[in-house]
Specification:
mainly alpha; Endonuclease Iii, domain 2; Endonuclease III, domain 1
Length: 234
């Protein structure tokens, strides 16, 4: 096992221990879900990670994966295109990968911003604070806070990020509350309304989870996915 993997395992273990200390609800969820399997790999190029995050906007991960694969297939050896190659890519070719017109504009803007230096190289990105990166990159059309936060978590491997506006995170957290309510009362309370589920998490919640945010996100997504039939995990 590499030192990088060892470090990731230690970070997850520390995060899980911190989450366990919050309250019995988190203890129960962790016992049910098991070890955190959220991958922390070598930091990716922020340009690539941003393009991928745009692909996944408002889509199931498999649909986003398919679009990224089709994009890579347009280039030699299925390699991820460089920024200049994307700037020069015909719009129709980009649309053929499944990207909407708005996503095409966002991807082109990200590529142009990389050429101009607005989107930093990985070493410069890691040297910047998370919030500084968010403020810089949300200037790009089609790139909001959620998109940059996905880049930070899945591209740069940052654990101290909580995308509080993410529907899956909000639903996972609320299902955690519902599941524990059922354990206490033996009854399933009604699910929150769609409008409530789309409300951002309260600021205090986000504060509680730092710097364990990415680990808690994994657990919340797991609880949402595994509880689709009987809410058995949160």
């Amino acid at each position: 096992m590499s030192s990088e993997s060892d470090s990731a395992d230690r970070r997850h273990a520390e995060a899980v221990a911190a989450l366990r200390s919050i309250d019995p609800q988190w203890q129960s969820l962790i016992d049910q879900v098991g070890p955190c399997l959220h991958p922390v790999s070598a930091a990716q190029d922020p340009f690539q990670a941003l393009v991928k995050a745009v692909a996944y906007q408002q889509l199931h991960a498999r649909a986003g994966d398919a679009m990224v694969m089709r994009l890579r297939a347009l280039f030699v050896d299925d390699s991820f295109p460089g920024a200049q190659a994307l700037v020069e890519l015909d719009d129709q070719a980009l649309r053929s990968c499944g990207f909407s017109a708005s996503k095409c504009r966002a991807i082109k803007a990200i590529a142009a911003a990389r050429v101009d230096g607005l989107v930093p190289e990985v070493s410069a990105a890691l040297a910047m604070g998370n919030e500084a990166l968010v403020e810089r990159l949300i200037q790009l059309p089609g790139v909001g806070r959620w998109t940059v936060e996905m880049m930070l978590i899945y591209g740069l491997g940052q654990l101290d990020v909580m995308p509080a506006s993410d529907f899956g995170v909000c639903e996972g957290y609320r299902r955690l509350m519902l599941w524990n309510s059922n354990r206490r009362t033996g009854k399933w309370p009604g699910l929150p309304s769609a409008s409530r589920l789309t409300e951002p998490l309260p600021p205090g919640i986000c504060g509680e989870y730092r710097p364990t945010s990415a680990t808690s996100i994994y657990l919340e997504f797991e609880s949402k996915t595994r509880s689709a039939c009987v809410l058995r995990q949160g």
